[in-house]
Amino acid sequence: MLKQRFLIVIILAALILPLGMAQAQSDVRFSPVERAIYYLGRVQRGETMLWTWAGTGFRVKYLNSMAVALHFSAENAPEPMSTDVPRLVQYRVNGGEWKSLLIPALSDQTFPLEITDSEGVLEVIKVSEGTLTFKGLRLASGGALAGAPLPRRKIEIIGDSITVGFRMNGMGGYETPSDHNARLTYGGTLAETFDAEVRLIAVTGAGLIHDYDTPPSESKPMPARYSLLHRAENSLSNLWAWQPDLILINLGSNDTTNPTVPEANFQSAMVRFLATIRAHNPSARIIVLQPFGLNGGSVPVYQAALKGAVQARRGDEKLLYLDTLGWLTSEHFTDGAHPNAAGQSRAAEMLIPYLHEIMGWN
């Protein structure tokens, strides 16, 4: 009798184990080059997709699957926000609540998502600045991918830490990515409001002539980064097939740091940069924003120089200057220089009616 029971157990195990193994192996894996996946932002494409700019991500529709998982790799890159620090990704399904994935530094693994529907439009955004490689997507057996509705409009925002949401939720550094959130910046709100893909061509510490507290000879300011797919490396590519309807420029705060750039030098550099931007984007409306101010919004940033640069390009009929001074006050800043969540929301609140009028968007 004991032998018979033992034999039954062995037979059941033999039947059950292969079945379990077959289920584990039957997950459907999709390459990051699947045509159904629409990438948001500047992506360095290959067998995997490298995301270096904050706000980069994708949109896709998944079908017939109660399990969705994403494969990410967080390698180090030659910048402090990509060296031994975690990255933060957020996702939502069918326009629902945004949820977070913390990607550990130097990790290479698959992250299951919290999914309650067997079908939905999945949106994924890297809300921190660190470099991240997307290696693919996994669904349950029988799952499939399809194209999702695409954004109606295209906006590019060129800027610095203010544009990427540095310290909007707290005073932490790169080791605390939850204190920074590109999705909740004024640009992210514009994306939601106008159903737009917003590309944030922005880096914490970046200036027009030099970076934060860094001499020009040791800097990689925004004009040197503007044409790059990989913001930390010289990965030039033909980016200009993606043509924005609108470009916002929010630069200058870091040029006020040591060594402070004189107004005349800043104006000349901005004139040159505007010419470069226009050459690559011949039909876009370009709006130069007065930065939101230093010392709690009370000190203007290159106000005369920015006005002068736009006036010097007066033949460009689609170029405008927008004075934002006074939009934000001391309670809208985390540290006097970086807008907090309320400050980012306030900036968007002021921009939206202006863009309704200028762009004719509803």
Topology of this protein?
Layout (H helix, E strand, L loop, with lengths): L1 H24 L2 E3 L7 E3 L2 E2 L4 E3 L5 E7 L4 E6 L13 E7 L5 E5 L4 E5 L7 E7 L5 E8 L4 E3 L6 E7 L1 H4 L21 H9 L1 E7 L19 H4 L20 E4 L13 H18 L4 E5 L13 H10 L6 E4 L18 H19 L3
Parallel strand pairs: 13-14, 13-15, 15-16, 16-17
Antiparallel strand pairs: 1-11, 2-5, 3-4, 4-11, 5-10, 5-12, 6-9, 6-11, 7-8, 7-10
Helix pairs in contact: 3-7, 5-6
Comma- or semicolon-separated keywords:
single chain; 362 residues; alpha+beta; Jelly Rolls; Rossmann fold; 2 domains; 6-stranded antiparallel β-sheet; 24% helix; disordered N terminus
Protein described:
It is a single chain. The protein has 362 residues and is an alpha+beta fold. It folds into two domains: 28-146, Sandwich (Jelly Rolls); 153-359, Rossmann fold. It has helices spanning 2-25, 161-164, 186-194, 222-225, 263-280, 303-312, 341-359; strands at 28-30, 38-40, 43-44, 49-51, 57-63, 68-73, 87-93, 99-103, 108-112, 120-126, 132-139, 144-146, 153-159, 196-202, 246-249, 285-289, 319-322. Strands 1, 3, 4, 6, 9 and 11 form a six-stranded antiparallel sheet that branches. β16 (285-289), α6 and β17 form a beta-alpha-beta unit. α3 packs across α7 (341-359) and α5 packs across α6. The longest helix has 24 residues, at 2-25.
